[in-house]
Amino acid sequence: MDKRKKLSWDDILNQSSDPKPLDRVESSEVHLNSVVRLISPAEEVAGKSPPTRSSSPEEWSHLIERVRSAATRVREVETEAHEQELRVQDLLERVREDIANANERVKAAEAHTREIQTRADALLKAADERVRAAEERARIAEEWLARVYDTIASEFAFAQPEKRSV
User: Fold this and answer.
1) Which residues are within 8 A (CB) of 59 and not within 5 positions of it... i.e. 6 or more apart?
2) pTM of the complete model
3) What is the pLDDT confidence band of residue 73, given thresholds at 50, 70 and 90?
4) Checking phi first, is residue 16 left (phi over 0); if not, alpha (psi -120 to 50) or beta?
5) Nearest-angstrom CA–CA distance, 135 and 148
């Protein structure tokens, strides 16, 4: 015979909170009393025993009301948890978008930096070439100036003017 069918309602409600594995009854009725006890206020539970088969309809009504209240609270908590999960997912999505945007900005900045570096390298190379060309022109100009000086000095023998006395 099934273990649940052998136990009466009173036996189920009076079971210890941590039954042995072999004595465990797998029904929602066993766990319902624990849920109701956890959710109901302490002052309502104190001094009252769970309803039995011989309990009055008012006690059963009170238990049903407590179960409904507990179920309402569970639904509220589930709704709040779902809303919070949606907010967290929205926040995560925004963070992912922000990270993606930041990565794109980093890539763009790196590309811009590479472009600037390439331009700077080209400008430095052109400046070096202009410096070399200017140095070469200055060297050639100095050579021509030296030739002109030598030619003038050799072609015109300047006589030293005599000193006049007054």
Assistant:
1) 51
2) 0.43
3) very high
4) beta
5) 20
